[in-house]
Amino acid sequence: MDWKLWEQIANIHPLIHQITNVVTVNDCANITLACGASPVMADALEEAAEMAAASNAVVLNIGTLRQEQLEAMAQAGESANKRGVPVVLDPVGAGATRLRMEAVDRLLKRVRFSVIRGNASEIGTLCGQRSGRGVDADEDGLKSLLPAIRDLAKTLQTVVAVSGPVDYVTDGKREAYVENGTPLLTRVTGTGCMLTAVIGCCLGAGIDPFHAAILSLAAVGIAGEKAEASLSNREGIGTFRVRFFDEISRMNSDTLEQAGKVKLLEKPV
Amino acid sequence: MDWKLWEQIANIHPLIHQITNVVTVNDCANITLACGASPVMADALEEAAEMAAASNAVVLNIGTLRQEQLEAMAQAGESANKRGVPVVLDPVGAGATRLRMEAVDRLLKRVRFSVIRGNASEIGTLCGQRSGRGVDADEDGLKSLLPAIRDLAKTLQTVVAVSGPVDYVTDGKREAYVENGTPLLTRVTGTGCMLTAVIGCCLGAGIDPFHAAILSLAAVGIAGEKAEASLSNREGIGTFRVRFFDEISRMNSDTLEQAGKVKLLEKPV
Amino acid sequence: MDWKLWEQIANIHPLIHQITNVVTVNDCANITLACGASPVMADALEEAAEMAAASNAVVLNIGTLRQEQLEAMAQAGESANKRGVPVVLDPVGAGATRLRMEAVDRLLKRVRFSVIRGNASEIGTLCGQRSGRGVDADEDGLKSLLPAIRDLAKTLQTVVAVSGPVDYVTDGKREAYVENGTPLLTRVTGTGCMLTAVIGCCLGAGIDPFHAAILSLAAVGIAGEKAEASLSNREGIGTFRVRFFDEISRMNSDTLEQAGKVKLLEKPV
Predict the structure, then answer these.
(1) What is the DSSP string of C235-269?
(2) Residues of chain B contacting C34 with CB distance shorter than 8 Å
(3) What SS3 class is residue B254?
(4) Is the whole-model pTM more than 0.90?
(5) How far is Cα C269 from Cα C267, in angstroms, rounded to an integer?
(6) Does C108 have pLDDT greater than 60?
(7) What is the pLDDT of residue A130?
(8) Per-residue pLDDT for A23 more than 80?
(9) Sheet containing C87-90: which strands, arranged edge to edge?
(10) Helices B209-229 and B191-204, interaxial angle, to 10°?
(11) Taking CA atoms, what residue in B is nearest to C19?
(12) What does DSSP assign to residue C112?
């Protein structure tokens, strides 16, 4: 694994256009800055395509949908595709309601994604296996899902990244497991959205989709581990969240090399 | 007071559907997680009713209204009522503009609430006594409002919780005063909204509305007190806010028992 | 420079009505409280004008535009103008898309602003010199822009405040440079929006536009300097952001007098 790739974000300082949800939009902008990239969060229909065309990567996140915003996402994605700007999708809560399933279908029909990042429940829904229960994921079913996930990656010619206790990344041929992270990351809202934003930063810095996903999963997981390790027993989730941002802003290739727990499999098992 | 009820949130891990304002939506999601529940913030008209039906409690907050969102709130509330899912209302800034008064009227006509939580100014407006001055409340008038508040609770068959220097809770018959808290809580945006979200967590965990309101007022007040006590003289409102989240995430029945200042009156005084 | 003016915010405790973007709306509300003022963030078309009329100052920020919100901004501005309530404009990303340029044009036609605050790229766009590149600014061109900025201030009869490595303020006749700040402020989202909110707090407290802009630039810059100086080498951007809020909440005229780096020029150079 070439951990030096991470440094490209700060060196290239890419502009990352994000159409995302109102819950975590501030966190996504801040994590983008913390990585060394520059965020722009423009979701108006009138400017989405124009902004996407001027960006180095586009992040689409369906966490809180409005019809107009969904069309803005599709147009931003198409505009990016036309110009070779990479696009990453976060299908938040994909299995939870019909609206979200239809939204994902519509985006997949109109936009080619370099990476799709979700939890096991969301990615399972994209594989045709709806599970429900809002945004939270049941991660037990990951193993049984693997063949379907590989098929999904092949069919859509994309990289699929499944975050969970152990993260999984595949482009349909190559595979990787990332074992960094802590359950505390699930106790803060937006860590999934932020992970997808970090993938956007990597893509915008010219890193290939497969390694962009792996790097991002490792970086976010390691930042979580370090933030947790720093907590005194009087501190809790508020301090954890602050230190998480501290650690992302201090992340570099040495830390990644030292702490990254990645298993790369060149062929499907 | 049975403080052990608090533990039910983490044990049951309820899903709390919240249609709320864009100012504090991130804080509300994070406080929900900090309590041990799971948030979903879906405000699109197309999915609000569906999401409410799949949730353990629904939180409606009119802090930043759009017409479409107001209709989503009404439909989410009706959907919850149909299935016995408890609903809590936060009538933010109810007295400040006509739009907000009409919004509250419309919601009260279509939805039955288990709890309504506001400051004295907002609850006074619901009692027909408009005071104005935006989101802030004048708390002096609480005493003179008590009879009207009890009537409101009886008429709407709901629990009314009035937060302020001393908090007041009534279901029209029983009453309680909660004396926890610190003025610093009014120096951070969203502490009222978060309080309402915590009531939603309690309701979603199966706690009855009267005790859900008392528990939440005590928990938020105690967390504020502890956060304030932890501040060095070089720290200010930013650190206070972080420690407040720390304390909520570490809250348990022992702390509540030790620090809770609740006076329960079984009959109206 | 009369630094005592700062204390007027906490003394008068003005109500600041803000129609702003979804990315930093929470930060803007919190900075307003930290300054000692009271925020209300009401962007619905039905109540914007009513709320503006009841406020002590209005802040308009085009960071994330919807058509309806733009009209709400115009109506809030007109309503404020009618009643002598000061209005401040933050033309976020003005040069980045056609939508934003049209939005600024429309607002400038309908509303008279006491202060317009942007970075060099945004203010350059208002001067007719479009530069592009999203929200970030290239600050090198400030010097060559100065004559155009003075003309802009004169034409619009407003105070123009340009934030950057060195900040610049002019009303077309008087000028000031503010040299407080740190590059870390550009690594946190919303510091520009928050700066504009602080200007709103000063205006709402009755401070004249020229000194309101200078005071705010100094206060935000000094808070950034102090927050940076407090960081240990294990801390990063997350802690910086928390301490920034700490410092704003502890800001007073003594600190401003001691640390403020302001050069006032009564005549254009």
Answers:
(1) --HHHHHHHHHHHHHH--HHHHHHH--EEEESS--
(2) 187, 236-238
(3) helix
(4) yes
(5) 6
(6) yes
(7) 60
(8) yes
(9) C38-40, C15-19, C57-61, C87-90, C115-119, C159-163, C167-170, C175-178, C262-265
(10) 130
(11) B64
(12) -
Average model confidence (pLDDT) for chain C? 94
Q: Which residues of C touch A76 (CB under 8 A)?
A: none
Amino acid identity of residue C11, one-letter, is: N
Contact A216, A198 (CB under 8 A): yes
Rounded to two decimals, the ipTM of the complex is 0.94
Residue the block writes with tokens 């340009």? C162
Closest chain B residue to the Cα of C251, Cα to Cα: B236
Nearest-Cα residue of chain A relative to residue B247: A236
User: What would you report as the CA-atom Rg of chain A, rounded to the nearest whole angstrom?
Assistant: 17
Question: What is the token pair recorded at C185?
Answer: 């402020």
Distance from CA of A171 to the nearest CA of B (A): 30
Identify which of B23, B100, B237 has the shortest CB distance to residue C34. Answer: B237
Of the pLDDT bands very low, low, confident and very high (cuts 50, 70, 90), residue B142 is confident
CATH code assigned to B3-265 = 3.40.1190.20
CB atoms within 10 A of CB A178: 27
Interface of C with B (CB under 8 A): 15, 22, 25-26, 29-30, 33-34, 38-44, 46-47, 50-51, 54-55, 68, 230, 241-250
Residues 6+ apart with CB under 8 A from A248: A31, A34, A35, A198, A219, A220, A223, C236, C237
Cβ of B44 and A99 within 8 Å? Answer: yes
Output the pLDDT for position B129. Answer: 82
Residue A67's pLDDT is what? 85
pLDDT in tens, A202-214: 999 999 999 999 9
Residue of A nearest to C101 (CA): A47
Q: Where are the alpha helices (DSSP H) in B128-229?
A: 142-156, 191-204, 209-229
**In chain B, what are the domain boundaries?**
3-265
Residue from B20, B22, B23, B243 whose CB has the most chain C CBs within 10 Å, to mutate? B23
B67-79: b (≥16 Cβ within 10 Å) or e? eebbebbbbbbbb
Instruction: Say yes or no to pLDDT of B85 above 70.
Output: yes
